[in-house]
Specification:
By secondary structure, the chain is an alpha+beta fold. The chain has 2 domains: 169 residues, Nuclear Transport Factor 2, Chain: A (Roll), CATH 3.10.450.50; 102 residues, Roll (Nuclear Transport Factor 2, Chain: A). The chain is built from 8 helices and 10 strands. The strands form 2 sheets. The chain has a 6-stranded mixed beta sheet. The protein has a 4-stranded antiparallel beta sheet with strand order 7-8-9-10, with helices on one face. The two termini are 37 Å apart.
Length: 286
């Protein structure tokens, strides 16, 4: 019989990741991942993958170079605003503070999705998807003036040494995403939802029969039920990464206020919404 893991179990595992990063414990961080794993950081760049047929490799073979490139050289701290749990998925709404040198520190708004699995009775991270925007982070670095060039050169050199030319070019692919057009599409979604416009909502989705994981209890909603849900949505901290838009979400009616993170997946060519999942804050607010 499969073991049941509680929300607290999931949160306890996820909390071990920033703890290991803060003290630069590479072995502890690598040990959090399943035998077959996928790390997308940032979403939109090529994933670091260990597939089923590669499980004879140690975690260090693929994730070790990632750690040595993006974690080991820096002082990194996580400032957590909220956590949402759906089954074995955890969504963290955070700002990551990265001290790249004494003169260059960046604060990166991130939505971190951890997809966990039961591996022989133990929770492990199967997929880590870090939704953040590369371009604003680079602009923060550049605002530091001449120290940016030292940091930038060192960062590029590390990527070439640990990940190769393909890794450097792949990382820069994160500059391409659904961008402002995708964000505008999600803004339209909010306006249609708040006005109960079923026809308008239906036009935004790729399929009329789509099921939307809006509630954290009970069945997924069809578009008709979503339009009739009621209440008012407000989105902040809207981030476009790859084919996704994530947003910090607040829903309210005359009885309650709830907060969480919404994850929209879009078809990049048509900007139609192909998937929507909401991860509500574990602490309900009345």
């Amino acid at each position: 019989m499969a073991k049941h893991f509680s929300d607290a179990d999931c949160m306890a595992l996820v909390a071990r990741s920033p703890a290991a990063v803060a003290v630069h414990d590479k072995a502890a961080w690598l040990d959090l991942f399943a035998r077959d794993y996928r790390v997308e950081d940032p979403v939109g760049s090529p994933a670091h993958v260990c597939a089923d047929e590669m499980v004879d490799q140690s975690t260090d073979d693929v994730l070790g170079p990632f750690y040595d490139t993006f974690i080991a050289p820096y002082a990194i701290s996580f400032h957590v605003d909220r956590d949402g749990v759906r089954g074995l998925h955890v969504m963290r709404d955070v700002t990551i503070e990265i001290s790249m040198s004494p003169r260059v520190t960046v604060h990166v708004p991130v939505h971190l999705l951890y997809e966990l699995i039961d591996q022989s009775g133990e929770l492990k991270i199967r997929r880590l998807a870090a939704h953040w925007e590369l371009r604003p982070m680079l602009k923060q670095q550049m605002s530091a003036g001449w120290p940016f060039f030292i940091v930038g050169f060192a960062s590029a050199s590390r990527m070439l040494r640990h990940l190769g030319v393909a890794g450097l070019l792949g990382f820069m692919r994160a500059l391409s995403s659904v961008g402002d057009a995708g964000k505008a599409r999600i803004g339209h979604f909010v306006r249609c939802y708040n006005s109960g416009d079923e026809h308008g909502l239906r036009a935004l989705f790729a399929r009329p029969d789509i099921e939307i994981a809006f509630c954290d209890e009970g069945p997924a909603l069809c578009i008709k039920r979503l339009a009739a849900q009621g209440g008012e949505l407000r989105l902040t901290k809207v981030l476009a990464a790859g084919d996704t838009v994530t947003a910090t979400l607040e829903w309210r009616d005359n009885r309650a206020v709830r907060r969480g993170v919404a994850l929209f997946t879009l078809d990049r060519s048509a900007l139609a919404i192909t998937d929507l999942t909401v991860y509500w804050d574990r602490t309900r607010q009345a």
